[in-house]
Design a protein that fits this description.
8-stranded mixed sheet; single chain; Glucose Oxidase, domain 1; 8 helices; 36% helix
Length: 226
């Protein structure tokens, strides 16, 4: 599904965690976090696979990705050499891209924080990739943080981490919007009415824990006997 301006605004008004309540796959490992907690990112994926020290594929991606794209980098098992620092990210910002996700470390942490461009990675390293033109692919299905990411998939990230929205994300979006509205309404009741939490609206937790479960199971077993 194409990410229109209307959909972009609706999704950004929620949070990845609101989708995460319902996702069974398509979420990246929690080790991938934003450089700065207030960074939030949303856009279609432009994918890069670069599993060695050669970083030329990432530079190619920056030149070819469309405005608003989130570049997603599959580093394979490489977790030492950083493919991106503040100068490369400055190029991405100039190109008006939507963000960068690296399943590995970046470098120039302080510089990246100052730029404010959404960068998500596993950590930081003082050693970097080089442009040797010997390795890399772009615009192909990749794996990033354990999630399969295809070109064009919608990638959504904030302080909690990154999710890849499914093709039928409208159903998930409506659920996320409902949860967001409920949370806002509950916070307003606490502030204005002194509301105190007594129960969940969807399930009676007290009844569940205080019920005689053994008796209920025994009754089911008895009913199942011929």
């Amino acid at each position: 599904m194409k990410l229109t301006k209307e959909l972009y605004d609706r999704i950004m008004a929620t949070a990845p965690a609101q989708f995460g309540h319902h996702l069974e796959h398509g979420f990246m490992h929690p080790r991938i976090k934003p450089v700065e907690p207030h960074m939030k990112m949303l856009g279609p994926a432009y994918t890069v696979r670069m599993t060695e020290r050669d970083g030329s594929a990432l530079y190619y991606a920056i030149m070819k990705a469309e405005k608003g794209s989130v570049i997603v980098v599959d580093r394979g098992s490489e977790d030492i050499f950083a493919p991106a620092g503040d100068q490369l990210v400055l190029m991405m910002k100039h190109r008006e891209l939507g963000g960068l996700v690296v399943d590995g470390p970046c470098t120039d942490r302080l510089g990246l924080e100052k730029l404010g461009f959404p960068v998500f990675c596993t950590g930081f390293s003082p050693v970097t990739t080089l442009c040797t033109g010997t390795n890399g692919e772009v615009d192909v299905p990749v794996q990033c943080g354990g999630a399969v990411v295809r070109p064009g998939d919608i990638v959504f990230g904030d302080a909690d981490g990154v999710v890849v929205l499914p093709d039928n994300f409208m159903d998930y979006l409506e659920a996320a919007e409902k949860m967001t509205a409920n949370e806002i309404r509950r916070a307003e009741r606490v502030a204005k009415e002194g509301y105190k939490f007594l129960r969940r609206d969807d399930v009676d937790i007290v009844k569940f824990f205080e019920a005689d479960k053994d008796a209920a199971i025994a009754a089911v077993k008895k009913a199942c006997k011929y």
